[in-house]
Amino acid sequence: MSAFEKWAGDFDKIYKSDTEKLHRFEVFKANLQFIESMKNQPELTYTVGLNQFADLTNSEFVAKYATLTLPKKQKRSTSNTHANLTSVPSSIDWRSLGAVTPIKDQGQCGSCWAFSAVAAIEGINQIKTGTLISLSEQELVDCDTTCSACNGGYMDYAFQWVIQNGGITTETNYGYTSGTTGTGGTCNTAKTGNHAVTIAGYTDVTPYSETSLMNAAAVQPISVAIAASGSAFQFYSGGIFTGPCTTQLDHGVTVVGYNNTGSTHYWIVKNSWGTSWGESGYIRMLKDYSKTSGICGIAIEPSYPTK
């Protein structure tokens, strides 16, 4: 119980009853056993560890944090303005180039789609204007009715909404509250008219092609969908993630770079689960995977805003 008590203190966990606390302790023990079992696999190129999700069963974790909603019949654009690049750098990291805002936390809300889309918009805006502005996920959660607020959404729909709205406002103007409430709020139309950043359109990257994704990521941060429902992903703490994972896309994140220079190539991916998860909120994922889907389906649904 002492390890659980320390963990609960570290993550400010408060339970409504002793019964609930005992139940969460049992879940914690099972998760700790999984984490310990992963340490006995020396061939792994990544590590797992305790984080804020350690008192959630995997099914609870999936229900809350793997909520991306893909259209059943989707018409994807075939144009890709970055497809014909003659040369791309062997590595790029948009964080060091000033195009990535600090890690954010979606909290108790299935709003990954909004965080993924906003990160891509923040990126292209900085690249085009030289100014990095933190933009409002809450505006999308509250106002984009083509998505389902804290119950899932889709990055392309978020891009469409920003275009139709005439822009998106700042985080400062329309702050994030759904991480605490767990629900979307009422759209504040007074704030939605205060546009800080506009985009001209969006483009879908050629699917099932890591080369196309790399060409796009060499130019700007890219919204991607991945399969994030596995326990290894839930407790990822560092290194180059190689699975196991499926290609059942359920989580929206943002590719903010890649590296082809070492023996194991990888994508640099910005998540929205705070800095306690992964590598201070980021994950490196295996690049040049044996299947065209990319690791965890990362190459299936990439898209980016244009400006």
From TrEMBL:
SUPFAM superfamilies named in the record: Cysteine proteinases
PROSITE patterns: THIOL_PROTEASE_ASN, THIOL_PROTEASE_CYS, THIOL_PROTEASE_HIS
Annotated InterPro entries: Papain-like_cys_pep_sf (IPR038765), Pept_asp_AS (IPR025661), Pept_cys_AS (IPR000169), Pept_his_AS (IPR025660), Peptidase_C1A (IPR013128), Peptidase_C1A_C (IPR000668), Peptidase_C1A_papain-like (IPR039417), Prot_inhib_I29 (IPR013201)
Keyword Signal: yes
GO process annotations (BP): proteolysis
Domain of life of the source: Eukaryota
Name of the featured protein: Cysteine protease
